[in-house]
Amino acid sequence: MDMERVLKGTPWTFNNHLLLLHKLQVTKDPLIVPLICTPFWVQIHDIPAGYFSERLAIQLGNFIGTHMEYDGSNLGKEN
């Protein structure tokens, strides 16, 4: 039960480094498990009013990795 909570609660960090976890099957070779990426939310602050758009969010997401999803629900708010 604890293992499932940890695996579903990603992303995790240790010492400010991203920690990737994978439930290894008994027959799997651990040397071929592709621990190369994981999705996580990024929040950008101090973008001038009027400049933030879905297009900019996609460009920023693709700059740091691969953009997957955009949530503009807080646009125009003080947050």
Short synopsis of the structure:
This protein has 79 residues and is α+β, with helices and mostly antiparallel strands. Helix content is 23%, strand content 8%.
Would you write up a description of this structure?
InterPro entries: At4g02000-like (IPR040256). This is DUF4283 domain-containing protein. It comes from Gossypium lobatum. By secondary structure, the chain is of the alpha+beta class. It has a domain at 41-79. It contains two helices and two strands, in the order αββα. It has helices at residues 2-8, 54-64; strands at residues 12-14, 17-19. It has a two-stranded antiparallel ribbon with strand order 1-2. The chain starts with a helix and ends in a 15-residue tail after the last helix.
